[in-house]
DUF503 domain-containing protein (Hahella chejuensis), 93 residues
Amino acid sequence: MHGFVVRIEFQLQGCASLKEKRQRTSGVREKLGRQPHLAIIESGQADALQTGEWTIILLAPNRATADKHLSQLEQTLAQNLDARITVFEQEPL
C-alpha cells in the first residue's frame, strides 16, 4: 500500500460569510469525497472567511497508481476549486 498525506491551504477572495465559503468549496470537496482512494477533512482555518485548509489522505495499491492519483488530485483542485491555492504540501506515507 502506498499513499500521501496532502495538505492544502487556499484563499477565497471576496468571501463575505462562512455560508459563502461552504458554497464555494462544497462542490470540489464532495467530488473528492466520492473517490474511494481519498479521505478529506477541513484541518484548519474553519472559522476564517477568506482562507481554508484541507488535509487529504490518498491511498493506492502501488506507487505508480498513487502518483497517478496525486496528479489527478492536483488537476481537480486547480480546475474546480473556486479559490487560489497558496500551499500544496505532500508527504509520502
Notes: The CA atoms of residues 13 and 43 lie 20 Å apart. The first strand starts at residue 2 and ends at 11. The chain is about 35% helix and 40% strand.
